[in-house]
Amino acid sequence: MKKIVGTFMAVVVAGITGSALAQVPVNIVYPINGAGYPITDPAVSGLKSAYFTASFGATCGGDHKIRWGFDGSTLGSTVFYDQISVQFVHKLPGGKHQFWVKADCGSDEVTFAIK
């Protein structure tokens, strides 16, 4: 019985430790890196522009600054305490794009295409 309880506790501690180490401070949820948008069935092609949804979150202890944008342009910025989650819609021209998020506790970026 002691072996079973000991093994169970070791698994629980490993699970908690692993999940705590896996969290990154800044995480882009959408768009997915390398994907093409919009996702339609049947597929469309040759779009000049599209309204596009982006989503990201940041978890950092205390007061922090964050900014985000597409390609070389900053689209928004704010200050937050501990955590923030942002989702917005923006019109983008067709072609390849880079979405980036930069906080003073970390950063993330993805590339994708409007096609």
| Count of separate DSSP helical elements | 1
| N-to-C series of helices and strands | HEEEEEE
- List the quaternary state of the chains: single chain
CATH topology value: Immunoglobulin-like
Radius of gyration: 19 Å
Helix percentage range: 10-25%
Name of the level-1 CATH class:
Mainly Beta
Number of domains: 1
Strands, total number: 6
Extract low-pLDDT stretches: none
Query: Any idea what the CATH architecture is?
Result: Sandwich
Gross geometry:
globular
Distance between the termini: 60 Å
Structural class comes to alpha+beta
Can you summarize the main beta sheet?
6 strands, mixed
**Average pLDDT reading:** 85
Strand content: over 45%
CATH superfamily: Immunoglobulins
Q: What does it look like?
A:
The chain has 115 residues and is of the alpha+beta class. Helix content is 18%, strand content 59%. The protein has one helix at 2-22; strands at 26-30, 36-37, 49-70, 73-93, 95-103, 106-114. A hairpin with a 2-residue loop joins strand 5 (95-103) and strand 6. The longest helix is centred in the N-terminal third of the chain and has 21 residues, at 2-22. It is globular.
